[in-house]
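Hi support team,

I submitted a single chain yesterday and got back a structure, but I'm not sure I'm reading the token output correctly. Could someone confirm the output below corresponds to the sequence I sent? I've pasted both exactly as they appear in my results page.

Thanks,
R.
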Amino acid sequence: MSKTAKVWIGVIVVILIIVVVSFGKKNTESETIKIGVSAPLTGPAATIGGWFLEGMKMSAEEVNADGGIDGRPIEFVIEDDKCNAKEGTNTVTKLLTADHSPMLVVYCGAVAAAVAPIVDGKAITYSGSVRTEPLEGKYPFLFNMAPSPLDEAKLIAELLNKKGIKKIAIIRQADFFGETMENKMIQALAPYKIEVAVRNATENLATPDFRTDLTKAKAAGVQAIFTPFNPAQYVVLLKQADELNLKVPFFSVWTTESPVLIDQAKQLTEGIIYTYAFSEGSTIAYGAFKDSFFKKYNHYPDINASNGYDVIKLLAQGAKSCSGNVQCMIDKTNSIEKYDGMSGSFSFKNNVADKKVFLKTIKDGKFIEYK
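Hi R., thanks for writing in. Yes, this is the structure output for that exact sequence:
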């Protein structure tokens, strides 16, 4: 064999190796459907973020057991954002650039607000928490599973008016979620003669101290307190109000419904009234879902778990119809009419799940519908 022939054979062998390696790599990458997840695994929102993830994982297992998406199983790439906007910016950037996820799920509204300009249509994105004001009408690729915050605020404002309450305090966290809920509540109070005598935002969520705000509220003679805090901060707020002998009713939103709140604040939670958008038995299949969820996680699903479950079913449905095309999945989601999920029956209105909002309360240590 000539020297030239040997050189050509060597070149061909090298090319074949490159092709085989590249093909194998491509096949490996195409074996799964990656869904990027940015959620609080640690920090003050870790509990409810964890329930959301549990619902997602159970849903993905069902999709995979049924053949996955066109024969490819779902694979989660999960990052901890601590429900922090800065952390979320880093985690979502990584999910987009390193993991190339065409489908994203974030839990916290503060994170969704921070990362929406980064995503910018590169992935269809779902958020498990309330949509914040900076997102309204700007990002057609972002869908929210929680109800409209204005709908929640209107329901509470109407009840405050019916109860003859004329002066309230609003105490909330200093983030997009807290700011949105405060602004929506003030907007909802506008038709009524109800004064917001005390307004304050707390930045220190790790070791919050509300005594100054509560002392001001007591001196101002407020008749109620509205707060959208997560359970960890809500517990401190209730205990400090009790220490100061501030005996007024508390009103809140769906983040209230957590065993953590009752376990740690006990009788201080009695009578809290809050908004909710999920009712057991809202779909025929819910009973089986509830039983299966309990067997798997040893606790019953809440609104977060149910929303997480529905997110994955919706993403799988869109991916199957659109072969992974992001714009197609966005269009398909916008066209959904009365989707019957575990979190209820809903359509997307202005990119928010249009769910019926109602009032619940805590009585004898249980979360029940408010009558």
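A quick pointer for reading it: The CA atoms of residues 235 and 264 lie 7 Å apart. Let us know if anything else looks off.

Best,
Support desk
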